[in-house]
Amino acid sequence: MSNHLSDRIKNMSTSATLAMAAKARELRNEGKDIIGLSLGEPDFNIPDFIKEAAKQAIDENYSSYTPVDGYADLKTAISNKFKRDNDLTYGLNQIVVSTGAKQSLFNVAMVVLNPGDEVILPAPYWVSYSDIVKLAEGVPVEVLTQIDTDFKMTPEQLEAAITPKTKMLWFSSPCNPSGSVYSKEELEGLAEVLKKHPDIYVVSDEIYEHINFAGGHVSIAGIDGMYDRTITINGVSKAFAMTGWRIGYIGAPEWIAKGCTKLQGQVTSGANAIAQRAVITALEAPVSKIKFMIDKFHERRDLVLDLLGEIEGFNLNVPEGAFYVFPDISAFFGKTLNGVTINNASDFSLYLLEHANVATVTGEAFGNPNCIRISYAASEKELKEAISRIKAVL
């Protein structure tokens, strides 16, 4: 009966990161010792002070439907966080709380895009951007960046990608999957191009902002002339290790926020009550409360780069944020390893899963066919063992 499914769902790709995680679970169930480096999920437990806030919310009987756009005191905490961390002023009518930053992105796409509108995606980009744009009947326009520019789009590349149909630019900084972080000067360069095209809006995905080793996060909404045309996306999944709590949010022009609230009211309504109460406590806490996680990610990054650097054929740059490395492994294309011919990044990633028992993700899912994504959101013991296995089978 699958032929009765809508064209919309039949044409949608399965999330490559979730598919690889499912494959890894399947192999584990068969008794194989799989090390999972495919998911973007911190391996830390949620900090105790946030757990206590959730328990208190249960005791205080926060069990009713929540406002569609989020509790007012949570939106106040988000507004204060934007001002404290990003020097951005968003009123409560410009903030919408959603069930994860992924829903925030989907809301924005559905609210802003019309059929045929083009959305520029610097590649590599997060795996779901392209399909979210397509679901909204937009057209993703990929701009391939290079490892020698740390996978960052240049103003010249942006200008060349713009057409009369361009409606939006979507990017993340720090970037999933590359770990790239745009500097203030780099964002100003992109903004100068965008100022010549005043009808183009920007989605700035900043969910990894605190996992940043570059010395400071910069929001493009804070660049001169960009505030009124930028939708800033954030959430608590990564920096606070709250992936399963599913809380994301936007700061945006009021008309976009109202549109997102209208849409969300017909799709999921308000986000989980207990999670929202816990997030108030998380956002009101100083960033120093989560610095131990950021420091550990920094140590792991250096460890992974050192170990992968010993493997011939891995072309590496130094990511400045998030918890991924994105090596170019195209040197292996055309080679035969243990009877398996490697034609592309998908072949390579599958080879590592089947022969090294290590789960990674093909770069093709992120718009870059020469790379694979390796998450270092795992223990040092697991990382050392995984890379030892990879080295052995190569």
Q: Would you give an account of this structure?
A:
- With 394 residues, this protein is an alpha/beta fold.
- It has 13 helices and 14 strands.
- Helix 3 packs across helix 10, helix 4 runs parallel beside helix 10 and helix 11 packs parallel to helix 13.
- The mean pLDDT is 95.
- Its EC number is 2.6.1.-.
Can you count the helices? 13
CA(first)-CA(last) distance? 43 Å
Mean pLDDT: 95
Spell out the helices and strands N to C.
HHEHHEHEHEHEHEEEHHHEEEHEEEH
Number of strands: 14
Q: Give the C-alpha Rg.
A: 21 Å
- Give the % helix: 25-40%
Structural class: alpha/beta
Main beta-sheet strand count, sense and barrel state:
7 strands, mixed
Strand arrangement across the biggest beta sheet: 2-8-7-6-5-3-4
The fraction of residues assigned to DSSP E strands is 5-15%
The stretches of 5 or more residues where confidence is low (pLDDT under 50) are none
- Shape descriptor reads globular
Map the helices and strands.
Elements lengths: L6 H4 L5 H14 L5 E2 L11 H12 L12 H15 L8 E4 L2 H12 L5 E6 L5 H7 L3 E6 L10 H7 L4 E7 L11 H12 L5 E5 L24 E6 L12 E4 L2 H14 L5 H12 L6 H18 L15 E2 L10 E2 L2 E2 L3 H12 L1 E2 L1 E2 L9 E4 L4 H14 L1
Parallel strand pairs: 1-12, 3-4, 3-5, 5-6, 6-7
Antiparallel strand pairs: 2-8, 7-8, 9-14, 10-11, 13-14
Helix pairs in contact: 3-10, 4-10, 5-6, 5-9, 7-8, 11-13
Protein traits:
394 residues; alpha/beta; seven-stranded mixed sheet; three-stranded antiparallel sheet; 13 helices; 39% helix; transferase; EC 2.6.1.-; AspAT/PAT-like
